[in-house]
């Protein structure tokens, strides 16, 4: 097989500039060799010489491969839920060419040894796997890991995801240490002192269902605290720390982030697809959202919130307060989820439904342009993660591309999933935009 | 690779009672008519109804009246019963509710009565087994058979048993007092009684009665002052107070009793004609004093007796139907 691909007669999409134009792309040796804008055909001869496989992109959009700043690939140690091979196959099926693995594995990815394990070729990743190793040893929230060594081994940031860095002084030290290396601290913003025993959003629905709720303040309180730390560090240490807030789910936390950005602090944040598509009413069983009562496929942390918070998440993506969409892809085995709601693990899979949900909600319902919607998965994500050569289509850059039909409407069938787990709330849900090809490093890693 | 685990969206058996919201007012009427018929039926006829059928009682929490009443109800209809409790079964070894339910089904159980400390557990069991499941209390969520027996107690007190419908409790105020936050009894009653015309008034301190309780059902009122609530009460339903919960919420038990205990003085002064109820177990001297619990306005024992009749009707519904005409002719 030749290692050349010729993406012919598609619509090239540059998310950063929100521009679309007809064109052809020639990919050779994993890089974009040539880009032709305009009427198709100018690269035909060169493609023939390279013996390139021709991918007919007529009627399809060619965009930079999607980047997911937040996935759980469950390796090492939890391979009954997912492996790096299966998780990255799901990524490819969802149009992602780069994913950032979270460190809450068994053991915790908190050392160079385990970071190398995650990134080793033996894991057979279908797409690029970057990693954010633990911010503290064992993610216990006490002692910082070796940031310098981890950065040299490829870390793109540090996080104790699944748990917050709770202690003020530890979070401060983490922000300072990461700022010296130019990397973000990615925070799971949850004041776990306020959420013990809670399994869903606090409010009328949790009251009715007799479930203990997580308050909005448990999220916003940590965000506000972290922003205070940022400000104080900027003033006293002459550093510019980067706080990335994971999966923001509340209007109150988004308000704090909007305000911090306006004051010039380096805060970025992500919103997850489920938080713009679903509400906590789903847990009471709602045909509209495709759920039954106490449906553990709708249990994740942060939890589904009220309609007001959902709308605030959408508004934040529309106005730029939220920089990116990240899936928080969190596979769990069916038997682990098939227990009482309060005992079920948090998390849902999300890689294969992210673009379909985002396009349906943001473009379909709220009129965000295709380019700006894609930017939330590409150029913005590359900027948040400091990945200079990703997130745009460029000659000489890695050939990470997604070819999709942005107008295709369909219902998601979890039976088609290539993840090892099936814990999705979106089985049967309407999607907009269907992936036809995913090309990672010049290789076709998914074709419909 | 196989993913052959029951889909969480699997259907539940229509003979189940998981939430009081799942039955309509006409179905409530049928159940209460059925309860009366079963209660008055000759023993020999009654035990033929579920002769040889198998009912499993799966109890993850200790219980006296609910368990015994379901068990006696099943036996009164001729069914065989078996009790599985968390203390003496594989539940102790960590067997999941799903696996326990499927095991009981494999042993021939045709209906499972579940008491669990987890809200929504009966929903899971009903989906896992496909059997009729009767919710005998799930966490802080619901206790639907309690709401039905409470309703029967009220209707008897008011003498309106004969005409169960949307106006049966019209003009009657039911004051539910105490730890609403943690009470499945309060939730089921609040969700049922309004549909029969009652004015439901919730009463308790903020820590035990958060504002969002108002959104439980349309028309619910809240009154934090117990004395004031009593002045409008036709029914006073007291809830058990668990001392350890008061400690967790920084409430002083003595202070609580000053504000919310139903005692003789209060009852005589503010609600001398009201029906007094308590789902049990009572903590005498905390939420209710003995003179009231044993007094002439109390129907706490009748509640227990009504429980037996209502649960016979629920078992009949689980196995056969809720229509009284489906009873064998006398």
Structure description:
- The complex is a heterodimer of chains A (448) and B (330).
- In chain A, helix 5 crosses helix 7, helix 7 packs parallel to helix 8 and helix 8 runs parallel beside helix 10 (307-319).
- The model of chain A has no long low-confidence stretch (mean pLDDT 97).
- Helix content of chain A is 29%, strand content 22%.
- By secondary structure, chain A is α/β, with parallel strands linked by helices.
- With 330 residues, chain B is an alpha/beta fold.
- Helix content of chain B is 39%, strand content 13%.
- Chain B has 13 helices and nine strands.
- In chain B, the strands form two sheets. A five-stranded parallel β-sheet of chain B has the order 7-6-5-8-9.
- Chains A and B meet through helix 6 and helix 11 of A and helix 5 of B.
Main CATH class of the largest domain in chain A: Alpha Beta
Distance between the termini of chain A: 19 Å
- Report the mean per-residue pLDDT of chain A as an integer: 97
- CATH topology name of the largest domain in chain A, in short, is TIM Barrel
Structural class of chain A: alpha/beta
What share of residues are in beta strands of chain B? 5-15%
- Give the proportion of residues in helices of chain B: 25-40%
Extended strand count of chain B: 9
Rough shape of chain B? globular
- The low-confidence runs of chain B, each spanning 5 or more residues with pLDDT under 50, are 1-6
Which topology of the largest domain in chain B does CATH recognise?
Rossmann fold
CATH architecture title of the largest domain in chain B: 3-Layer(aba) Sandwich
Total separate domains of chain B = 2
Please give the oligomerization state of what you see: heterodimer
Low-confidence stretches of chain A: none
């Amino acid at each position: 097989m030749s290692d050349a691909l010729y993406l012919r007669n598609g619509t090239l999409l540059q998310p950063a500039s929100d521009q679309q134009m007809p064109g052809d792309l020639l990919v050779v040796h994993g890089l974009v060799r040539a880009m032709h804008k305009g009427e198709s055909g100018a690269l035909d001869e060169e493609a023939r010489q390279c013996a390139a496989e021709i991918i007919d992109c007529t009627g399809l959009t060619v965009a930079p491969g999607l980047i997911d700043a937040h996935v759980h690939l469950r390796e090492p140690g939890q391979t009954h839920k997912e492996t790096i091979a299966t998780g990255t196959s799901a990524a490819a099926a969802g149009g992602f060419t780069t994913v950032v693995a979270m460190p809450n594995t068994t053991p915790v990815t908190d050392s160079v040894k385990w970071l190398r394990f995650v990134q080793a070729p033996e894991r057979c990743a279908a797409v690029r796997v970057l990693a954010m190793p633990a911010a503290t040893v064992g993610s216990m929230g006490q002692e910082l890991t070796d940031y310098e060594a981890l950065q040299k081994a490829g870390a793109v940031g540090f996080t104790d995801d699944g748990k917050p860095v709770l202690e003020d002084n530890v979070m401060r030290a983490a922000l300072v240490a990461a700022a010296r290396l130019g990397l973000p601290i990615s925070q799971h913003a949850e004041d776990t002192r306020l959420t013990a025993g809670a399994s869903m959003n606090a409010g009328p629905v949790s009251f009715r269902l007799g479930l203990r709720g997580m308050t909005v303040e448990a999220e916003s309180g940590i965000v506000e605290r972290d922003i205070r730390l940022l400000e104080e560090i900027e003033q006293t240490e002459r550093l510019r720390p980067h706080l990335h807030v994971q999966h923001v789910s509340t209007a109150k936390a988004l308000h704090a982030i909007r305000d911090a950005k306006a004051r010039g602090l380096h805060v970025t944040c992500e919103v997850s697809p489920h938080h713009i598509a679903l509400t906590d009413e789903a847990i009471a069983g709602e045909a509209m959202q495709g759920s039954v009562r106490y449906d553990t496929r709708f249990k994740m942390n942060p939890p589904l919130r009220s309609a007001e918070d959902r709308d605030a998440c959408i508004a934040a993506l529309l106005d730029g307060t939220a920089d990116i969409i990240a899936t928080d892809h969190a596979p769990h085995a069916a038997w682990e989820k098939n227990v009482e709601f309060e005992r079920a693990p948090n998390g849902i899979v999300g890689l294969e439904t992210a673009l379909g949900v985002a396009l349906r909600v943001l473009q379909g319902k709220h009129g965000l342009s295709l380019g700006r919607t894609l930017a939330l998965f590409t150029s913005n994500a590359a900027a948040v993660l400091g990945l200079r050569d990703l997130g745009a289509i460029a000659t000489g850059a890695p050939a990470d591309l997604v070819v999709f039909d942005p107008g295709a409407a369909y219902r998601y069938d979890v039976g088609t999933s290539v993840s090892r787990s099936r814990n999705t709330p979106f089985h049967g849900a309407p999607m907009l935009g269907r992936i036809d090809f995913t090309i990672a490093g010049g290789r076709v890693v998914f074709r419909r | 690779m196989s993913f052959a685990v029951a889909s969480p969206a699997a259907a539940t058996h229509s003979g189940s009672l998981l939430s009081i919201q799942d039955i309509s007012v006409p179905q409530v009427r049928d159940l209460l008519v059925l309860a009366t018929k079963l209660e008055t039926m000759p023993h020999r006829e009654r035990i033929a109804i579920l002769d040889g059928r198998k009912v499993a009682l799966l109890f993850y929490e200790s219980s006296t009246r609910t368990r015994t009443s379901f068990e006696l109800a099943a036996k009164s209809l001729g069914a065989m019963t078996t009790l599985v409790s968390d203390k003496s079964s594989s539940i102790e070894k960590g067997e999941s509710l799903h696996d326990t339910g499927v095991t009981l089904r494999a042993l021939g159980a045709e209906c499972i009565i579940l008491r669990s400390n987890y809200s929504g557990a009966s929903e899971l069991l009903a989906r896992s087994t496909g059997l009729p499941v009767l919710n005998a209390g799930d966490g802080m969520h619901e206790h639907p058979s309690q709401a039905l027996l409470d309703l029967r107690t009220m209707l008897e007190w008011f003498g309106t048993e004969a005409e169960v419908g949307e106006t049966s409790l019209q003009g009657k105020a039911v004051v539910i007092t105490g730890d609403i936050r943690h009470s499945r009894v309060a939730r089921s009653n609040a969700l049922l009684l309004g549909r029969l015309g009652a004015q439901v008034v919730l009463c308790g301190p903020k820590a035990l009665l958060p504002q969002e309780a108002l959104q439980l059902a349309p028309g619910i009122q809240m009154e934090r002052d117990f004395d004031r609530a009593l002045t409008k009460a036709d029914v006073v339903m007291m809830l058990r107070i668990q001392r350890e919960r008061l400690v967790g919420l920084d409430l002083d038990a003595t202070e609580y009793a000053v504000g919310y205990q139903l005692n003789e003085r209060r009852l005589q002064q503010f609600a001398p004609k009201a029906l007094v109820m308590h789902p049990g177990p009572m903590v005498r001297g905390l939420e209710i004093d003995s003179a009231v619990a044993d007094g002439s306005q109390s129907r706490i024992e009748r509640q227990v007796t009504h429980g037996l009749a209502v649960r016979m009707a629920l078992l009949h519904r689980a196995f056969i139907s809720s229509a009284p005409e489906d009873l064998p002719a006398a």
